[in-house]
Design a protein that fits this description.
It contains 7 helices and 12 strands. With 324 residues, the chain is α+β, with helices and mostly antiparallel strands. The termini are far apart. The protein is elongated.
């Protein structure tokens, strides 16, 4: 059985679904208890403020610290250098600290998932939490003088964390959790008629197709706005969402995008929504992607071209050589 096939079986036991549902409810209740700071806190852990999921960035820090711990442990055990043991303890502690932040960001992203991705993510979370516990035990052993046992425990923790990382990569690259779900669309470069002008009601999202790309149109007074209709977060249909204060809100998880330019106002998405230009021509609403910048500037820098001829050894070249 391939590793990929093995991964597809991790969510089959009934307790996985039960545990995932219970944990998801607990996470949602914890955020609901934050009241007015709920959304800003979630946006922080999602990574909305940096335009990129925060969880994988923190994961790199945590695994990097624990890989360093393994290196220091191996070198320390073979050389007997106490300084290396101190370094191992320091990186282990740093990994534990970043690991707590990594888990927090991870479960914040995970709380919006359903079905197979939710179950795989639950197992991923259990492994990450287990690795934190094992590394915590390793730190306690070291501080109590049981350094050899602490090293062995840390190696076990690294195996668990690496397994969790594999599941995490499967969620990202296989299940597209955390990916931009609009990345595969090519917006039309020329104007495309998509809807008669009279068919678009005021403030009501309308789904149309533009050269195979789903687009949501919204009329606000004299302005007509157009965004890609697939939510960049997890692919929700923005045309089924609602308009609020100049923005459209995804019906699935509440990501909110400004209508005029697709700017992300709050998560759980971390990506802007692709926007299209609009116009009314011959009674038809037409859309196109925003014009691309030129491939190269339409000016040339001023410079002087100089040519040089190498002089052969023993004298100047027949044509005089040098600069010309």
């Amino acid at each position: 059985m391939s590793v990929r096939a093995l991964v597809s079986t991790v969510d089959r036991p009934p307790w996985v679904e039960q545990g995932a549902e219970a944990l998801q409810d607990a996470v949602e209740q914890a955020y609901d208890a934050l009241g007015p700071v709920r959304q800003p806190t979630m946006d922080f852990w999602h990574g909305t403020w940096i335009g990129h999921p925060l969880h994988p960035l923190l994961t790199d820090v945590t695994l990097g610290m624990w890989m360093a711990t393994a290196v220091f442990d191996v070198l320390g055990s073979t050389t007997g250098d106490g300084g290396l043991d101190t370094c191992a303890e320091a990186t282990l502690t740093a990994g534990l600290t970043s690991g707590l932040a990594t888990v927090t960001a991870g479960v914040t992203d995970w709380m919006h998932l359903m079905h197979h991705p939710r179950r795989v993510g639950f197992v991923h979370a259990l492994l990450n939490i287990s690795s934190l516990a094992v590394y915590g035990a390793s730190l306690l052993m070291r501080r109590r003088g049981r350094r050899s046992a602490g090293r062995n425990m840390a190696m076990a923790g690294l195996v668990i964390a690496s397994t969790a990382a594999y599941l995490g990569s499967e969620m990202t690259f296989g299940l597209r959790v955390g990916a931009d779900h609009t990345a595969g669309y090519t917006l039309p470069e020329e104007w495309v008629a998509v809807l008669p002008e009279g068919a678009l009601a005021e403030g009501v999202p309308q789904r149309v197709m533009a050269n195979g790309v789903p687009v949501v149109l919204v009329r606000q007074g004299d302005a007509i706005h157009a965004l890609v209709a697939t939510c960049s977060h997890l692919g929700g249909p923005l045309d089924e969402g609602h308009v609020h204060d100049g923005a459209i809100v995804c019906p699935w998880h509440g990501s909110r995008y400004a209508l005029h330019d697709g700017r992300l106002e709050h998560g759980p998405s971390v990506y802007w929504q692709p926007a299209l230009d609009t116009r009314v021509h011959a009674g038809q609403i037409e859309v196109r992607g925003a014009p691309r910048p030129p491939a190269r500037p339409d000016w040339e820098p001023e410079h002087t071209v100089r040519e040089y001829v190498l002089e052969p050894s023993g004298g100047p070249a027949p044509d005089g050589g040098g600069e010309r």
